[in-house]
Amino acid sequence: MDKKLSSIVRAFVCGGVICLGIQLIMTVLGSVLPPEVPLALRGSIALLIGGVITIALTLSGAYAKIDRFGGMGANVPFIGLVPAVAGVMCEARAHGASLGGAALAALKAMGMLFGCGFAISLIIGFALTALGVGIFA
Questions:
Q1: Is the pTM of this model over 0.70?
Q2: Measured between alpha carbons, how far apart are the two ends of the chain, in Å?
C-alpha cells in the first residue's frame, strides 16, 4: 500500500508542477502581451509554448525521467500527450510495426484517451443536469 500511495503523491506533485508551469507562462504572457489579447488566446499560446518545451524535453530524453517519476501525472496534462503518443509509436516500432502501423497505434491511443474523456464528460454533464446543477438545468 505504501508504494501505491507514493505513486499517487508523485503523480499529483508532477501534474501540479506541470500545470503550475503553464500557469506561470500564462501570467508572463499576460504581462508581456497587450491587454487587448483575450485570455483564451493567452491560454492557447501558453499551451503551444508548453508543447514546444515538452517536445524539446522529449527529444533530449529528459521527459522520460519526468515520466518515470510522475507516472500518469506526467501524461494526463495536455502537454504530456506528445511524449505519451511518441512512446506508443516507439514501442510499436520496437515490436516490428511499420511506420504506418505505429501511427495507427498512436491514433488508437489518442482515440481511446479522447473518447474516454468525452464519455466521462457526457456522463458527468448529464448527471449534473439531472440534479439541476448543469448549465442546461
A1: no
A2: 42
